Amino acid sequence: MKNKLTAVALAAVVVAGTAAMALPASAATAKAAPTRCHTADLKAGFAMGEDARPEMDQTERQTQAHIWFSNKSTRTCTLSGFAGVDMIGAQGTDGTWSLARSSKAPEKLVLEPGDTTDFSINLLPVAESTPQKEKFVPAKFLVTPPNETKHFTLKWPFGGQILKQDGATHPGTYLNPVGL
């Protein structure tokens, strides 16, 4: 009985091995789809070009700041969704403000090694003469890539102050999805 079971098991291994070897060459060389980018795969910063700088010295309309993510890894990865952004204020009364998201639909982006993408933050600046309790003075931004838990800490380089709406349902300061 033992010899028959061994013979059946050996025959199954031979058949399985033959079936695996019968796959087309294209299936054997197909690449796996890229997986999402992790914080360790990326670097981040504020876009500093003239057209990317927010107009913090005007108070009549919204302006935008842009934060970029660059794939510093040696693998292709994907980003999709919204970054998490918590602003830490410079004033003792500011605290931390977790920014709301826009209603824009995110798209899936593929980042090859060295590729960069960004997202924008709509900001509602206010005049320096605005009462302190109505303004938020940004100092640092804690930026978490989509679907991640580790963040980057970025120093706010643009000055100015924002209308404090951290409890508003539809604030004038909010995030847009990565890549849009």
TrEMBL record:
<feature type="signal peptide">
    <location>
        <begin position="1"/>
        <end position="27"/>
    </location>
</feature>
<protein>
    <submittedName>
        <fullName>DUF4232 domain-containing protein</fullName>
    </submittedName>
</protein>
<feature type="domain" description="DUF4232">
    <location>
        <begin position="37"/>
        <end position="157"/>
    </location>
</feature>
<keyword id="KW-0732">Signal</keyword>
<dbReference type="Pfam" id="PF14016">
    <property type="entry name" value="DUF4232"/>
</dbReference>
<dbReference type="InterPro" id="IPR025326">
    <property type="entry name" value="DUF4232"/>
</dbReference>
